[in-house]
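Researcher: Re-running this chain for the archive, since the previous output was lost when a drive failed. Same request as before.
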Amino acid sequence: MLAWPLYAEQRLNRVLIVEEMKIALPMVESETGFVSSTEVEKRVKELMGSKEGDSVRERTLAMKHAAKVATSEGGSTRIALAKLVESWKQK
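Model: Regenerated structure tokens:
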């Protein structure tokens, strides 16, 4: 994934997915806030053919697997949701 924020909360999202989660590469904007076609080409090539791009893909696949486990029968997400529903039923 390439992080290219345009407005609103997208700049915060870029920080989260690039620096915290490390599942994206940032687009570098010019001083005027625009991204050049050269920058797009550079980042796509970096994502598709570099060690950093490989790391991004590996982390993304690991997160995909973790989400699948959490949402499967008996997973932490399913259990938490069931507890929430039960708490609503008791009120």
